[in-house]
Write a structure and sequence with these properties.
The chain has 17 helices and six strands. The chain is mostly helical.
């Protein structure tokens, strides 16, 4: 979740999780173990993603996060005593992380997902505190002033927002679920991993419509476009969710960033690369079991593969709008049958993203390209080049409409106006360029 993909309108951003552990020795074995556990939890929470600017030092802040009211900059959370959190007591740290209140007493912007972190247990909070105090190298870097104009820059409305929408901290309450494994998955998904920050729709006040599965079917049912990426439905819907995914598919995806049928893209690329690949197999399985326990909510029919378009494309029939573009630009990787190549180029047939109600992410990928994450389990990265430099809005709309109505996919058409709207938000350099001759 991360090249400025908002977590309040929720954002995930980049950052290489390099070796950030301080070189000095810990006081004792117990402290070392606590710091080590805190490091694992910080990875699970992907703290480095938002608190590290592009090309910046780990956890030193400065990452710009676009919000509906202006630009928010992440803060320095290294243990520097002047510009970071080195002077924070545990109580200061816990109040900021779980309650959204700074050491100075003002409310934090909910770009910091403290409504989700209210679920984090006390022992994990102590481990996180130990890690940030003793396992992270201090960096002297002043925090960047927020790019928000007055009166929207006033903090007191955030206190009202916090009172209205942030849950009470329930750190000692048992995690929900029907078994210990599912309960662990629920704890991770709803808490540290804060999946709902991107994958749950937002209300009029930009609050998540549900923070847990118990709060209603909106939970993890898919988010709104953020930086032209759309966080997908993680419930059991067969066409647009995880209904056709197995637990093994999910654990493989979280570990490597790809499966035999799909691959991570957009903000999720960074989530896998800097967070979920480092989780234990047991925690990835717990997440998979929990997500698979969530029923679908959209009353979707189970999609079935249809070979009619595959046969037409294979024979060179380009009578349908977009067919010639697909054969010239897409079929080499995704094949005329739309099934792609296992663990390399994702299948387009029966793909939940292709079938999603919102086509923004598809448009973005075609215009600006995308790449898979590099992980320990799958170090090779595969990239889709940008086509914005040579395909018109109408051509992009036609080829995406073809994808969304072929091989068993049944989704609404894409219009040239929709493509133009997304194109206008993408820097020209990201649209690619004609090859040099």
């Amino acid at each position: 979740m991360k090249k400025a993909v908002l977590k309040w309108g929720a954002v995930f951003a980049l950052g290489a999780f390099a070796q950030v552990t301080s070189p000095f020795a810990m006081a004792d074995d117990a402290t070392q173990q606590l710091v080590h556990r805190g490091e694992y939890l910080a990875r699970a929470g992907d703290c480095i993603a938002c608190h590290t600017a592009s090309h910046g030092k780990p956890f030193a802040g400065g990452l710009p996060i676009e919000s509906p009211i202006g630009t928010i900059y992440s803060t320095n959370i290294t243990p520097d005593t002047t510009t970071g959190i080195g002077s924070y007591t545990y109580e200061d740290f816990e109040r900021a992380v779980r309650h959204g209140v700074s050491k100075q007493g003002y409310s934090l912007y909910p770009a910091m997902p403290y409504p989700n972190y209210a679920r984090v247990h006390d022992d994990d909070m102590h481990a996180l505190y130990a890690y940030f105090m003793h396992g992270v190298a201090p960096v002297s870097q002043a925090n960047h002033a927020e790019g928000i104009m007055w009166p929207l820059s006033m903090r007191w409305p955030l206190t009202l927002w916090r009172w209205a929408f942030a849950p009470k901290v329930a750190a000692d309450a048992p995690a929900p679920g029907t078994g210990s494994v599912i309960a662990r998955g629920a704890y991770l998904v709803e808490g540290l991993a804060h999946c709902s920050a991107c994958h749950t729709p937002r209300g009029a006040g930009m609050q998540e419509l549900a923070l847990t599965a118990q709060e209603g079917p909106a939970f993890l049912s898919g988010g709104a476009p953020i930086d032209n990426w759309v966080a997908t439905n993680l419930r059991g819907d067969p066409a647009t969710g995880l209904g056709l995914w197995s637990e093994a598919d999910l654990t493989t995806f979280l570990k490597s960033g790809s499966t035999d049928r799909t691959a991570a893209f957009g903000g999720m690329t960074d989530v896998v690369q800097h967070s979920t690949q480092y989780m234990t197999d047991a925690d990835r399985m717990a997440i998979a079991k929990y997500l698979k326990s969530l029923p679908g909510t959209k009353n979707e029919a189970t999609p079935h593969y249809d070979a009619a378009v595959a046969a037409a494309l294979h024979s060179g029939n380009v009578t349908r709008p977009g067919a010639d573009t697909y054969l010239n630009s897409c079929a080499a990787c995704h094949r005329s049958d739309g099934k792609g190549y296992a663990a390399v180029f994702p299948a387009l047939a029966l793909n939940p993203v292709v079938n999603g109600a919102d086509s923004t992410a598809l448009i973005h990928i075609v215009l600006a390209g995308s790449s898979t994450p590099s992980t320990q389990a799958a170090s090779a990265q595969f990239a889709m080049p940008p086509y914005g430099w040579r395909l018109s809005d109408a051509e992009v709309a036609n080829v995406l409409t073809l994808l969304r109505s072929s091989w068993g996919n049944h989704a609404s058409p894409v219009t040239a106006a929709q493509v133009a709207k997304v194109r206008a938000t993408i820097p020209v350099a990201s649209l690619g360029a004609a090859p040099q001759r």
